[in-house]
Amino acid sequence: MPDDxxxxxxxxxxxxxxxxxxxxxxxxxxxxxxxxxxxGPPVYVDLAYIPNHCSGKNTDPEFFKRVRASYYVVSGNDAxxxxxxxxxxxxxxxxxxxxxxxxxxxxxxxxxxxxxxxxYQQTHEKQQELNIMVLASSSTVVMQDESFPACKIxx
Length: 155
What we know:
Blueprint: H1 3-12, E1 18-19, E2 22-23, H2 31-34, E3 43-49, H3 51-54, H4 61-66, E4 67-74, H5 86-97, E5 105-109, H6 114-122, H7 124-129, E6 132-134, E7 139-143, E8 146-150
Parallel strand pairs: 3-4, 4-5, 5-6
Antiparallel strand pairs: 1-2, 7-8
Protein name: MAP1A protein
GO molecular function, one term: microtubule binding
Region (Disordered): 1-37
């Protein structure tokens, strides 16, 4: 492919070769295997959205070791595609256990799913040990013809 064609194709689909904001090898079918994440200190943020609707395709314990948030949003609601993924929720526990500090973390699921309910019940003791709270909401927002659960966060 000529250089000008390659340049155009990379601009027409920006971010295609990025996984969690890290450049990957587009020829690889497994983005995790091609990540070359430089070592460095963890990043602390107030709020983090778990990538790809909490799919296990590209979120693992390393994400939670490196991105340390007070609040994580879990937006997956597609069981057929494994969203949210039990493996990602377990990765939160594994990653948080590596922090070495017991900061409060709040998990905000945007949907009430069987996966999140089972994970919550089966790992509740571990969540308490790691100072992780799962926020539940009985509030509902209605927009046009769609309604969905909602959580209010104030900083």
